[in-house]
Amino acid sequence: MNSMHWEVPPKDLCSRFDPQQLSFKTTEELPQEEEVIGQERAVRAMDFGLHIHDRGYNIYVSGIPGTGKNTIIKSMIRRVAETLPSPDDWCYVYNFQDPDRPKALNLPAGKGREFQRDMERLITTLRDEFPKVFQSKEYEDQLRLLEEGFSKARESLTRDLEERAKEYGFEINSSRLGILVVPIIKGKPLQAEQLEALDPVLKAEIQRKEKILHEHIHNFVQQIRALRMEMDQKIEQINHRIADYTSEHSFESLREKYRMFPKVMEHIQAIQKDVLENFKDFLPVSESPIQIAGIEMEAPRKSMTRYAVNVVVDNGGVKGAPLVEEVNPTYNNLVGRIEKKSRFGTLYTDFTLIKAGSLLQANGGYLLVNILDVLRSPFSWDALKRVIKNQEVKIEDIGELYGLGASAGIKPEPIPIHLRIILVGNPLIYYLLQTYDEDFGKIFKVKVDFDVQQNRRDESPIQYARFIARLCRNEGLLHFDQNAVAAVLEQVSRWTSHQKKLSLRFSDLADLVREASHWARQDGKACVSSQHVRKAVEEKVYRSNLLEERIRELIAEGTLMVDVAGAVVGQINGLSVHDLGDFAFGRPSRITARVFLGQSGIVNIDREAKLSGKTHSKGVLILSGYLGGRYAQESPLSLSASLCFEQSYSEVEGDSASAAEIVALLSSLSDIPIRQGIAITGSINQRGELQAIGGVNEKIEGFYAVCKSLGLTREQGVIIPRQNIKHLMLKEEVIEAVSSGQFHIYAVSTVDEALEILTGYPGGELRPDGSYPEGTVNAAVQKRLREMSEKMHAMENENRRSLPSPVPDTSDESSES
Predict the structure, then answer these.
(1) Can you identify the CATH homologous superfamily of domain 39-44+63-82+320-426?
(2) Is pTM beyond 0.90 here?
(3) Rounded distance, CA 570 to CA 675, Å?
(4) Helix, strand and coil in the chain, % to nearest 5
(5) 757-769 pLDDT, tens per residue?
């Protein structure tokens, strides 16, 4: 057997970077530049999303963590936001017509806080000025004149009434119960008993006169009341005139300042009207304490809350449009909330307790939020969609909104909104929302897709070198020399498992740079070299590969049975990858096949034990198609076979073992042993062609490590699909072992090529008569299948002969006779 033409040469086992192509000695020489590396598609889509202003063109940024998408999109948003005008401030104020529905006012950026201060100054001024005016001597003189006029008029009316009463023979007495009339006879008041004892005629006359007098008293009371009302009206006019005169200058200044804002002018007018109607609220309260539940407390001062301005959005310090990143997108944090306070055990609220959420804070700009956080927060996703569709934010109690038993409270006026929402998430959530949420595609029309890798280009090395230089400057790390940068680039390429690709997971790259700098400092060096990069990689592996070492120990001591020497019929070493999240490694697994008489076909023992995943089960079923197409063109297959991953007690997934399984099955059929020092990985199709698989580097390195621990024989190696050659980025140790002939890597295209390497016998080409050449694996398989088929037919014929002959039915003949 000559397998040399399938062996992969050492130069194809890894793609190297030539340090001499770098035009610097260390990254310290490189300029400080901000640039986006390898995300042209995402940048182009993001630029489109930021500059289109139609409704529904919100953005979904898709990509796995570590690609730098947050940094890139924030930088792009800031550049655009700086060119836009700062949006308005928003305030909530008291609604004098409907106190339960606070009004929303908008003012240019920075004016909201200024309006708030102006109102505070106004109230302070009125609290100072009103007491001075209404406690002044001039004001008291005017009141005294009114009181004197009222007193004179009352005295005159009283004298007239007394004279009229005297004419009728009565005396007028005033008391708390009102005006009393007492009859007078012979100059003396008549008592009730005396009145009853009078002559009936005289008594009737007194009563008649009393009735007439009561009419005069009624007129007197009406006149006094009219005088009092007139005086009160005059006092009210004086108060109104004084209050108006005292406050007019302050209100005129406000009207002049805010004349360009109609809603603000309307609110100022409402405040002035309320101030004039309630000017007494600005006067000092009684100094005497009041009793509440037996406790003396100072008399409360009248609240001025209704004149306050609640600035919920202040863009005074914002340059351009705002960029708000909401890291905890609960319903309240997104939409806003209405807080409550406690007074004597009772909760209350008002418009000053309205708090804006991030949607309002980002109004006129951009809101950045993680979609997974939104979906995890109850009610947040629906609230976000409702705001986008209605183009307004309505702050309301969440319990009241969803009927959760909250008591009715204030209902602030909705605020119109215009902003661009940027969701950040992984591709899976994007596809799920597109499929299951009918609104998603209508309101998030821009997809910004961040890639995880890019093609290697001529400018790639210097781009990555500039990234390293920028990171070193920003974080005070040691700079990298040429060899260190080349080593980093090789590792970045290895992360993609592709010789022509480079990883765009810059968080992992940054960690590698930090750790390499650490080991260089530990080594007392002023600059990072390639050995420090390799040290950083090795140390990170060492921190995570405990499980790998334990499995390798179990193999070395024979607990896990793996042969790496000799040849065995129906037994082969397959390769699998264990992904632990931060670390992945490959390991060999023994796969066995047994063939016996029967017609059950291929039985996947792992599937029967419910340990086989869907993809693995599919791979096993493909084997039946391959066997049927190759060996059952003239007669049906008559066999039973079992396949098993030995010592596997967890789910087996993936079809990368189907090449190993078909080789083990053909070995069992042909009775030709398989070299145990050669492992194989690859999936197959029904035509017997090997297909590319993942984790090729981990699988090769895992089998090499096992062979090394058990002893290298120079006959060991791994067979991979030819399509996987471009994915090889192997460790230096493995490449050196291949270069020295201690280990071998073969790349094949078909099952027949793999059979020749593993058995030493050619697979064999099908001849026109439907047979295979003698001395080939396929000929031995075909011969065994025919023998099994003949035995099965013979057994079936024997079974038929042993069955009793059926008794003929003569019932019809009897009836005819």
Answers:
(1) P-loop containing nucleotide triphosphate hydrolases (3.40.50.300)
(2) no
(3) 10
(4) 50, 20, 35
(5) 999 999 988 888 8
